[in-house]
Amino acid sequence: MNYSSDEMMTVAAARALRDGAVCFVGIGLPSTAANLARRTHAENLVLVYESGTIGAKPDRLPLSIGDGVLADTAVSVVGVPEIFNYWLQPGRIDVGFLGAAQLDRFGNINTTVIGGDYRHPGVRLPGAGGAPEIAASCREVVVVVRQTKRAFVERVDFVTSFGFGSGPGEREELGLRGAGPQLVITDLGVLRPDPDTRELVLTALHPGVDVATVRERTGWDLRVADDLGVGEPPTDRELTVLRELTR
Amino acid sequence: MNYSSDEMMTVAAARALRDGAVCFVGIGLPSTAANLARRTHAENLVLVYESGTIGAKPDRLPLSIGDGVLADTAVSVVGVPEIFNYWLQPGRIDVGFLGAAQLDRFGNINTTVIGGDYRHPGVRLPGAGGAPEIAASCREVVVVVRQTKRAFVERVDFVTSFGFGSGPGEREELGLRGAGPQLVITDLGVLRPDPDTRELVLTALHPGVDVATVRERTGWDLRVADDLGVGEPPTDRELTVLRELTR
Amino acid sequence: MATIAPLSEAVAHVVRDGDTVAFEGFTHLIPFAAGHEVIRQGRRDLTLVRMTPDVLYDQLIGAGCARKLVFSWGGNPGVGSLHRFRDAVQNGWPRPLELEEHSHAGMANRYVAAASGLPFAVLRGYTGTDLPAQTANIASVTCPFTGEVLTAVAALELDAAVVHAQRADRHGNVQLWGITGVQKEAVLAATRSLVTVEEVVDELEPRPGAVVLPSWVVDYVAEAPGGAHPSYAHDYSVRDNDFYVAWDEISRDRDRFAQWLEGVA
Amino acid sequence: MATIAPLSEAVAHVVRDGDTVAFEGFTHLIPFAAGHEVIRQGRRDLTLVRMTPDVLYDQLIGAGCARKLVFSWGGNPGVGSLHRFRDAVQNGWPRPLELEEHSHAGMANRYVAAASGLPFAVLRGYTGTDLPAQTANIASVTCPFTGEVLTAVAALELDAAVVHAQRADRHGNVQLWGITGVQKEAVLAATRSLVTVEEVVDELEPRPGAVVLPSWVVDYVAEAPGGAHPSYAHDYSVRDNDFYVAWDEISRDRDRFAQWLEGVA
Q: Residue B82 catalytic?
């Protein structure tokens, strides 16, 4: 079956979720990917939404973080303070799934302002939401974002969610308990932090994408892993389930 | 109708609760008095129990703080942390009803240890429970306790719940927001703190009790108010309802 | 005891010029009808507070009711940006909008602190981000037992809180269920409160997952059936997703918005 | 994912010599069956934690399982004192019992802090009392915004938590209702946890007021119908008030207690 680069990105994100993992899900692409995973290889994936629904099993794609289908199908519905204090903060969540307006070389995320200064921004974005603490407290973070030169920048204009700061040791110094952004999935391929430098490195391409294209759409001098892989294209089943979900 | 001094005490305690007040109720005499009040002059009294039941309307006397009848008849049942943090601590409760093993001249309460020292006590009592924060945070505190020389002491062996410390200004200095013990109801009469010295003063006798008896059963040189009153005996209705409740 | 009153009367009592006021709701149960009444009553200089200011806050901001916004995520959920919010921030139209910005965890804990009668709350939050530099309401606090440094946020005390719920009884006890967000905390954090409800009933039969606010912590209850539209009230209505999409068009243009605003008045 | 196992096996996995362990329950849902299994397994040197240690803790203390008690109210509710507890404190029998004593508000907040992954919690508590002088786990903390001095309590981190609930499903999701106390917090504060249940069912149909613990935060679930006796399980059993009264007699005398203890083994 033919597929779009967005479909490839969503399928790749879904595959990153192991069965049985507990996943803190934002709305949009992360939610689509998590629901796809639950319908394919990860039947026992636990979906936690910041609206307070734990273990939701929506029979359709939720249209917002507070969709009634989440409450109707959850194992437990709790208030918003509890979801952050009892469930996210102590490190009970395996994977946090985040999007980004800007993402930099060291995995820091900006969803606040672009251009100008904070008080007089070029573009005012929606802001932090749950992201700063998701980025801090989940065992690991997966970022799903379309790869463009505007989005993939040397240094974000505003650190909304902390990745690796400007390199190794900073998370540890700040006392952040989660491992931070361990995986960035784009419409072109996959980036992972170098274990030594914490810089995001291209580790896999989606089928049919070349390195030059990825580098063109990256705002820093992108390093490429020695053992650069190429992902599997979406299977027919993955595409069928995904299109069923999003139609 | 004939009545016992305990019945007089319970009726006097019930009468101290105005209709519509929100009352934090401990088990035992306070609970009996509050439930009597709700069945006589204070139909809209709101009963809050530390087990997390708000607005319970038990159709019989609860046998413990966690009696199922409280949950079954409550307007809302919340967890124990919430009852203390959202409901007691911010000063939403009008009246806190406390008992005491020892009560001193300045309304301080001991329910921890009597005699010896803390590590090697003469008598080990149950301890604080909710009392220290009830005494601190309710708009006012009513203490219900049988009057004996052993219980009414010059200075408590251990301050479990703070009344007025050793005199005026101490509650304010400590930042306690509630007005403290404004009323002590015993089987002999009623004591109130002197507005200036904060010392508990005998302000009313129950019918048939004389001052000498009260002074005899008080471990300090008890002051008597100039306008010492005498309470009304229990009405037939009060006694009937009380006996219905406790039989 | 809550007073049960018509919406216009209740809003007039609860929301006043210059107030710090939250119209809370986490996608679900957003008090649109009450917010529109605030626009009709011409309230000004409000400090609007909400974790997720969305279309209702875009409307209040565009109508010139707000002086300041305290929030953690301002967008049109599932659609994109809030154009009246952006226009106010980027161009000062119809008046400048001061921002105080937090994370969800921070805002939730600020409500909890206020509901608990505490001046601050402790969390693991904001660490390493650029947010603390922009407000005095984020600080640090040292654990007296371990020496660990944590984040403190100031209690979010409100003059007024407005929320929508499914039901109240005739005594003014309020019941809401489904996604219950921070509505309880907002009401408990406020000096004055108003709950609009789908219906007033004789008895609140218990519901799984329901939060109940006793009458004596609520000041006003007003019947406003459908009062959460275009958001929804679980078991009463469904979200009007088309309106959220349509809002993107309506709000992009000042004139088009002005036209919409006339329809509210 | 919780493992569903027989009670003896589950207790052996969850409660170990030297543990700091809470058997929580606020009059309701007290895990007596699990506690008796701990006595049978001969656990020693436990630091027993509970807001309201009552008859079960009197039994564990009398049986010599405990080295220390962390608590806020220790009595036989509605009856009087705990004689085994008193005997241990006043006479060191069968072994000395170290005490760490708090108020309910302090204990509840200590659980909340541990459940929240924080080293401490802030409250208005203990002020003016003689309690802070007796433990290092009560301190003060200054609000970084207002300068006000408040009370801090250290997080109550547990090796193990044991609670009783009405039901679990076959995946190990647990549901309890009625008075729910601090059971959720205790489980979330613990490294290992065991929930005994009245029954394991195919599906947890939603109940008003129910707290649900997802399977993935529970280690063991064990069926123990009637496992809260002489306390009760709301909608399953009623409290055996006669036993609480009888306990006063049984526990007053060491020999009489020893006889009772033989019946447990």
A: no
> Catalytic pick from A50, A133, A199, A238?
A50
Tens place of pLDDT per residue across chain D (265 aa): 899 999 999 999 999 999 999 999 999 999 999 999 999 999 999 999 999 999 999 999 999 999 999 999 999 988 999 999 999 998 999 999 999 999 999 999 999 999 999 999 999 999 999 999 999 999 999 999 999 999 999 999 999 999 999 999 999 999 999 999 999 999 999 999 999 999 999 999 999 999 999 999 999 999 999 999 999 999 999 999 999 999 999 999 999 999 999 999 7
CATH number at residue A161: 3.40.1080.10
CA–CA separation, C236 and C230 (whole Å)? 12
pTM of structure? 0.98
- Structural domains of chain D sorted by starting position, each given as residue range(s) with its CATH number in brackets: 3-106+156-264 (3.40.1080.10), 119-154 (no CATH)
Domains of chain A: total = 1
Q: How far apart are CA B202 and CA B215, in angstroms?
A: 9
Domain, as residue range, for A64: 5-246
CA distance A197 to chain C (A): 18
Q: How far apart are CA B121 and CA C72, in angstroms?
A: 53
Q: Cβ separation of C217 and B92 shorter than 8 Å?
A: yes
Contact C77, C57 (CB under 8 A): no
Q: Is the ipTM of this complex over 0.95?
A: yes
Among candidate residues A84, A167, A175, the one with its CA nearest the CA of residue A128: A84
D145 vs C139: CB contact, 8 Å cut-off? yes
Q: Is D216 on the interface with A (CB under 8 A)?
A: yes
- Residues in CB range of B244: below 8 A, 6 or more apart: none
pLDDT at residue number C223 = 98
Q: B148, exposed or middle or buried, with CB in 10 Å at 0-12, 13-18, 19+?
A: middle
**C interface residues, D as partner, C-beta within 8 Å:** 117-124, 136-137, 139-141, 143-146, 148, 150, 152, 154, 206-210
Interface B-C, measured as beta-carbon pairs within 8 A, has a size of 34
Between helix D55-62 and helix D254-264 the angle, nearest 10°, is 100
